[in-house]
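Ticket #4471: structure export looks truncated?
Reporter: QA, pipeline team
Priority: medium

Steps to reproduce: submit the single chain below to the structure queue and open the exported record.
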Amino acid sequence: MPPSPFNSQRQEAFRDLLDDPSPIVRKGLLDEFSRIGTPAIDFLESLARGSNRMLASHARRLLEELKNANPSEDFRRFIRSLNYELETGTIMLCRVAYPQLKASDICDQIESIAQRCRELLIKPSSSRDRCVVINRVLFHEMGFRGNAEDYENPDNSYLNRVLETRKGLPITLSILYILVAQRLGAELDPIAYPGHFLVGSFEDDLPFYIDAFRRGKFSTPGQLLQYTDGQISVTQLGNLAPSPIREVLTRCCRNLVNHYKLRNQDDMAQLFNSFVLEFQRCHQKQTS
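Actual output as written to the record:
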């Protein structure tokens, strides 16, 4: 069930709890304000400027704690750093919705998958050989698959939940695939194919693509391209090129905006839309 909107009634309830001395209540407030994001920050800043000195004092303390331990702000700072790394960015995005998540938990699970792949690898191995093994482990032994029956569920966009449910979107399954491959020494690339998301390998003589949503189906460039009058569209060629990490994470945020809107979780939709806009602003500033 989606959370209640951040309306005046909820704000009044939060206001009544601000002076509660219980550490459990305070932690609950911090977690909830962190989840709500910008509307909660605006609410606290309004109280901090108000005439009620005691309430203002509690609001300022919470604002300071949120500033020092706010996954949403951490992710925003990551965006502004322009130093994008796929694993770090993906985990930080997960912590926006799951603040108690430990990065080490995700890393350990990915390493466990990679270790199982190492047990099956025969050296020397090509990039394709390693992908065949990853396919066996991820999709056959462990049962990861695309969540076609509940595609719009926001949890499909969070890698921690994908690792738990073993179901996800094309983009999150592709991210998992790439992170496992990196631990095996295979440098794969994210491919933002129109309407879908793929993994690309350009290490061997002949490039190939993997559809993680369809249990690791292999495709050649020719199988993915559409032809018009016998010519390959330049635009289509661009769609088969590696995508910058910035675009991958922005696409994750856009998916979450759409999926939260479908569930009428407007607070979360607005929060992730603010990340999309932040990515756009930072990219424009970088290229101007």
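Status: closed, not a bug. The export was complete when the record was re-opened. Leaving a note from the reviewer for reference: Confidence is low (pLDDT under 50) at residues 227-232.
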